[in-house]
Write a structure and sequence with these properties.
The structure holds two protein chains of two kinds. Chain A contains twelve helices and 20 strands. By secondary structure, chain A is of the alpha+beta class. In chain A, a hairpin with a 2-residue loop joins β12 (about 265-270) and β13. Chain B has twelve helices and no strands. The chains are: A alpha+beta, B mainly alpha. The interface of A and B includes residues 67, 88, 98, 105 and 147 of A.
């Protein structure tokens, strides 16, 4: 639980809504590219916007910046509609950072001062603010350098400073670390996390990186094909995806179709092509469901063991035998695909893969807890 | 070679008289300068609008403008002469064979050049730059101003190309100006006249003056183009 959320709880209510989209449709050509039934951005909180490529994340962000025209629906800021005549005033409440820094062909200092100049802030008042934010983002030494001559990591810091110096009510970040290397990305992420916590600025950050989203987001919105499919705290989205696309995106790699055949004491038994899977769920018998399972929740045992050790068997209620069909090494982990009729994916350490003597074609026993299985009810 | 060029200039000064040469040169500069300035006032805003807007027939309009960049000055001269001829539709204005007529023709020649190159100059910018500026709170005018500033090098090149297209053209100036001494004689028309008379040395001398003029104007613009304003801003 984040500091923001606990404060809100202590105050006895949620943060007020800052910006809201309702029934919003954005059209490109004749094709709707974005359809948002409702999205509220709470003051002081960070919303992470995730989804596969082409899902409309950037389009949504630009819409929130009032930079794309709504074919239908409304954008409101503190309850007032943003539209013709009020767009500029609204935009002066936000700060926008795009994936590429897009710095202006002038000095670093003038870049960061640009937004203040747009707002008519006198340069005497602007100078200390610009200096402070350059300093805060660790690029004060670059202030007189031409912006075109600094590295991409530095440029992205300048771009962040350029938005933050405005002390916006809403910070809109579109994959702000897309153009920097992994090490720089890590440091920028650390800094951004601290900045967001300290400034308490409301923020929407677009990212395709789930770890980033989980780390920065108080809530996470998953977009698929121009629509928001789920908005929840990140842990909840990961544990309880609402539909198959969301489950696939957040890493529930094993997805098995089946039907609930019995339900007792909060544990449902699902028939998956003859195999029985137990899941913690209150769904009633007869429902068609999708059993979702994350690879890190699956444990593999060598085929020699008749059953898993009893201590494990008691909590890991599901046991299934199969053959390894594919192994892919990813860093210190190995992703193992097990053919059990359909495919079950497990993620184990390289050390345990070696201990188990796993190889493609080897027979294995896979176990997973009933609480690790998330059931998504299917229509019909 | 150098000796013969120097002779040419001497001949020119002697033949035309220093006062006449200065007059012709200033009229060249004046007519082309005014025409370029008017073309800039038309071409820059129109080109900016064309570069930033999206409408159905935009591609067609841009093609027409680009074709306009290659308008033959003689054809423009013919068209303007027809309009301004004493018996023509605008004959009552009495502008034929006046510097004003030359300015009109040259505006028609230079405007498509400046307009087309303005569209190209702004088209080179990252389209998201405009979104970024607006996302930082820039008004419409502030956005346009900064886009011009970002594209200042190709925009100055557009201005130079516009000026170059009119300072060097002869067909339209001859046709609507008439090459009248003390009234509409400019460097290019004077060169044509001297060559017609077989006065090649005078023609060469005038050619040198014309080149020097073009070089000086472009030199000033190039200097302005290369001088980065970044340093200025940093000190503010």
């Amino acid at each position: 639980m984040t500091a923001g959320a606990s404060d809100a709880t202590a105050a006895g209510g949620a943060m007020p809504t800052l910006v809201e989209l309702r029934d919003a449709v954005v059209v490109r050509g004749a094709r709707p590219v974005l359809a948002i039934d409702g999205l509220a951005i709470a003051d002081g909180a960070t919303l992470a916007l995730v989804g596969p490529n082409g899902a409309g994340k950037s389009t949504l962000l630009l819409t929130l910046a009032s930079l794309l025209r709504l074919a239908r629906g409304s954008l409101t800021f503190r309850g007032a509609t943003v539209g013709r005549g009020t767009e500029l005033a609204y935009r002066r409440h936000i700060g926008l950072v795009l994936p590429d820094p897009l710095l202006l062909d002038t000095s670093v200092f003038a870049n960061v001062a640009a937004g203040l100049r747009f707002r008519g802030v006198p340069s005497a008042a602007a100078r200390p603010r610009v200096t402070a934010w350059l300093d805060r983002l660790g690029v004060a030494h670059l202030r007189d350098r031409p912006a075109r001559q600094i590295s991409s990591g530095e440029a992205q810091r300048v771009s962040l400073a350029r938005a933050l110096v405005l002390e916006p009510d809403l910070l809109l970040l579109d994959e702000p670390f897309a153009s920097v290397d992994a090490a720089t990305r890590g440091r920028l992420l650390d800094d951004l996390e601290v900045l967001l916590r300290e400034t308490r600025v409301a923020c929407v950050i677009v990212t395709h990186d789930l770890d980033e989203a989980v780390r920065l987001g108080d809530r996470m919105a998953v977009m698929v094909a121009g629509r928001i499919r789920q908005v929840d705290p990140p842990e909840r989205v990961l544990a309880e995806p609402l539909d198959e696309d969301v489950a696939a995106f957040v890493g529930a790699e094993t997805r098995l179709r089946g039907r609930v055949i019995s339900s007792e004491e909060g544990v449902a038994v699902v028939d998956v092509g003859g195999m029985h899977v137990e899941a913690v769920s209150a769904l009633a018998p007869g429902r068609d469901v999708l059993c979702c399972l994350r690879p890190e929740d699956v444990t593999l045992w060598s085929s020699g063991s008749q059953a898993a050790p009893s201590s494990v068997a008691s909590s890991a209620r599901n046991q299934v035998r199969g053959r390894v069909s594919r192994m892919v090494t990813q860093g210190s982990l190995v992703r193992v695909s097990v053919d059990i009729g359909s495919t079950l994916v497990a993620s184990i350490t390289r050390a345990s893969a070696a201990d188990l003597g796993l190889a493609e074609g080897a027979a294995v026993l896979a176990t997973f807890k009933a609480s690790a299985v998330h059931l998504i009810p299917l229509a019909g | 070679m150098v000796g013969s060029l120097a002779d040419g200039v001497q001949q020119l000064v002697a033949g035309l008289g220093g006062a006449d040469l200065v007059e012709i040169t200033l009229l060249s500069l004046g007519v082309s300068g005014v025409a370029t300035a008017i073309s800039l006032l038309i071409g820059l805003p129109l080109g900016t609008w064309l570069a930033l807007s999206r409408f159905r027939s935009r591609g067609l309009v841009v093609s027409v403008v680009n074709t306009g960049m290659a308008l033959p000055p003689v054809v423009v001269g013919l068209f303007v002469a027809f309009l301004l001829w004493r018996s023509g539709p605008l004959g009552d204005l009495g502008l034929i064979y006046s510097p004003s007529a030359m300015v009109i023709a040259e505006v028609i020649i230079a405007t498509p050049v400046i307009l087309g190159l303005t569209v190209a100059a702004l088209g080179q910018l990252d389209p998201r730059l405009r979104l970024q500026l607006m996302g930082l709170g820039a008004s419409r005018w502030q956005t346009v101003w900064w886009l011009w500033r970002e594209a200042r090098l190709p925009l100055l090149a557009a201005l130079m190309a516009g000026f170059g297209s009119v300072i060097s053209e002869v067909g339209a100036a001859m046709m609507v100006g008439g090459n009248i001494l003390h009234q509409t004689r400019v460097l290019t028309t004077a060169i044509v006249l001297e060559v017609g008379r077989g006065e090649f040395e005078k023609a060469v001398g005038l050619g040198i003056v014309l080149l020097a003029l073009a070089f000086a104007v472009n030199g000033i613009l190039t200097w302005a183009q290369q001088r980065g304003p970044g340093r200025q801003d940093a000190s503010r």
